[in-house]
Amino acid sequence: MLTQDQQNDYHFMIGLAYYKTNDFDQANNHFAQMMDSNSRYATSARYYYAHSMYMSGNYETALAMVAKKVGRGAALLIW
C-alpha cells in the first residue's frame, strides 16, 4: 500500500507523462487527484493542469486556475 505522499508523487509523475505526450485529458485526471494536496508537486500540478486545460481549448477553466493563483489581471497578461 502506498502512503499518501507516494500516491501524490505517482499521480504527478503519471500526469506529467501524459502531458508530455499531449494526452491532456488523462494528464488532468492525475493532476486533479493531487493538486490540492500538500504534496511537493502540488504547485507544479496546478500549473500543468491549467496549461493542459488551455491546450485542450478549455480557456475559461485555464484562466480561472491561473487567476486563482496570481490574480485575474496578471492571469490576463500570462495568457
Highlighted features:
single chain, 79 residues, mainly alpha, globular
Question: Explain this structure to me?
Answer:
Helix 1 packs antiparallel against helix 2 and helix 2 (24-34) packs antiparallel against helix 3. The chain has 79 residues and is an all-alpha fold. It is built from five helices and no strands. The chain starts with a helix and ends with a helix. The chain is globular. Helices cover 77% and strands 0% of the residues.
Label the overall shape: globular
Percent of sequence in beta strands: under 5%
Count of helical segments?
A: 5
Provide the residue-averaged pLDDT.
87
- The value of Rg in angstroms is 13 Å
Oligomer: single chain
Q: Characterize the largest beta sheet: strand count, sense, and whether it forms a barrel.
A: none
Extract low-pLDDT stretches.
71-77
- N-to-C SSE string, H for helix and E for strand: HHHHH
SS-derived structural category: mainly alpha
The proportion of residues forming helix, as a percent range, comes to over 70%
State the distance separating the first and last CA atoms. Answer: 40 Å
Number-wise, the strands total 0
Concise synopsis of the structure shown:
The protein is mainly α and 79 residues long. The protein contains 5 helices and no strands. α1 (4-20) packs parallel to α3 (42-55), α3 packs antiparallel against α4 and α4 (59-70) crosses α5.
